[in-house]
Structures are given as C-alpha cells and as structure tokens.
Amino acid sequence: MSELRVTGLYKAFGDTPVLRGVDLSVAQGSLTAVLGPSGCGKTTLLRVIAGFERPDAGSVRLGDVEVCGRGRTVPPEKRRVGVVPQEGSLFPHLSVAENVGFGASRRAPGRATRISTLLELVGLAGFEQRRPHELSGGQQQRVALARALLPGPEVVLLDEPFSALDAGLRHAVRDDVRDALHEVGATALLVTHDQEEALSIADEVAVMRDGLVVQHGTPEQVYLEPADLAVARFVGEAIVLEARGDASMASTALGELKLRGSAERGATGQVMIRPEQVHLVKVGDGIPATVQRAVFHGHDTTVHLSVSPPMVDAVELVCRIQGALPEASEVAIRVDGAVAWFPR
CA-CA distance, 42 to 221, in Å (whole number)? Predict the structure, then answer.
C-alpha cells in the first residue's frame, strides 16, 4: 500500500468547474473520508484518482509513481487502484468466489486461497458458492470490498458504499469494512455525504465545498475546531451566538464562555456551541430557559429551548437528554467545555 497525494487538481465539464485546485494527501495505511454535499466535486475527485476521468490540471501520485500529471496518464487498469462502487455491482450470474476473483488470472498461484482468505476477512467464509441474489445488501458490499482487495491495490476507493443500506445494517457493515481495511493495512479513500459515517470510521476527514478541500484533519479537529461556520454547520448541529472576545474567553448572551484558542481583546465575532455542551441543571443553578419542543429519537431526545437573557433578543438552543420533557417546561441550562471562535 502507498501514500496517495493529490496536488492542484482542476476539472471542468464544459464551462462548469467541478474541481478548483484540490490538494489532498492520504497517509499509507490510513482511511480518509471525503465529506461534502452533493455537487461539491467529491465523486469527480474519486473518478480522477481511479483514472476514469482526466483532470485539466494537477497531478495524482501513488507512492513514488505519478499516475497523472504533466501530460502523463496511466490507464485505470494499470494504476493498482481498487474501487468499491455504491451498490456493489456484482455479476449476478457468477458465484461469490467468481465475483471476488473476477479479473484475476485463474492460473495465478494461490488464487483460490487468496479468495478464501479475503472472504474470511470480510466475514463471508463459506459463502463461496452463493450467488449475489442470495446475499443481503451488506453482504454484497463485503463481496465488493473483497474483490477490490484481491489484486493487492495501492489504494482502495469507496464511493458512498453504504448509502443504499438501511440504518441498522449500515452501522454494522461500515464497522466491518473499516476493520477489514485496517487488517490489511489498506490506504483508503471513502467518499460520503454522511457526517456521522465520516466522523465515526475515518482516521482523517477532508471536507469539500465548491470543488475545494476547505478543511482536512482528524474527526475531532473537524468537529470541534471547524475551519469556518459553514463547516461547523455541515458536520453537525451548531448553535451560533454573537460574541466579544477577551483572550481565552468570550462574552455572550449566555455569559462568559471559554474559547478553544484565543481572541483579541474586544474583538467581535461568533462562537459555536455543540448541542452536547448544553446541559440541563437545577432551576436556579443556571440560565433560565423554556422548552419549545422535544423530539424523541429512542437513544436520546433533542430538546429545543428558548432563552431570554436580560437586554438580549431571545436565543434558540438545542440540547440532548435521556428521557422526555413536556413543552413549556421551565428549566435551566449551563454550557460546558470550550467553544469555537470565529472572528469577524
């Protein structure tokens, strides 16, 4: 497996620019998620890396080999890139073993053993003779992953491989896929629009917007220290308040809040609070608030609150709790932990 490095990648379709100078690196043996809304360019990026599209400018390197750039283009079949498409794309007339081995010479030494080893790795030992129609959607995706891993690719590309699965199955399959990729030390790039998916399984997350990578870091960095408010709002629920900075603190409608990083004294800006930082406390021990709406999700309840601090317009907040609260309940809240700061 090799490091993947993308530099200054541009791609337009007609007069419409799709990639506008993408820079991205994926460390050897790691999994990076490219996260972004529909139309941001993430699938085009994947197709350029795979060799299915030619960029207008920029380069792609797999380890020490430049597979496209400066007029040079290595064909897709010679790039040693494995692709796991959105819905598996298995051949219905072939068995599981034949699907995994498709494209590899039947005379290749150890081929059958390699197929069995990979099926065991993805949790499908004993499924060799089944046909795709006899498998669940999650099992088909596991077969597609095994097929992508069979040639020993330098990089594995996954194009929203879990989007067609129901919620319960999606969690289990993506955990299995992550474990299988780590087991073989694969360098992998996952394209997704699902924030939870990206944050939960990737070693690093690259957020794309309008054909550019606007932030690249660990899931914790992207979630807790977003590059801007647009990233903050895209990767999770965000409560945004007007604020005035003062070194490591900010004055807000909810009082003094500790900042991640620092602000110039007297600087105006905004702070971003995540819902899990808002806690309900005993009335009298925090800022008074009123429950506007409570939405039960099973594992928790999202509570929408209205706070009316003195001399300030009402502030809308969201928090998450266990249990339930009736509408119009009078409660009190406290904000815990440091908050992100965005100067104007």
Answer: 20
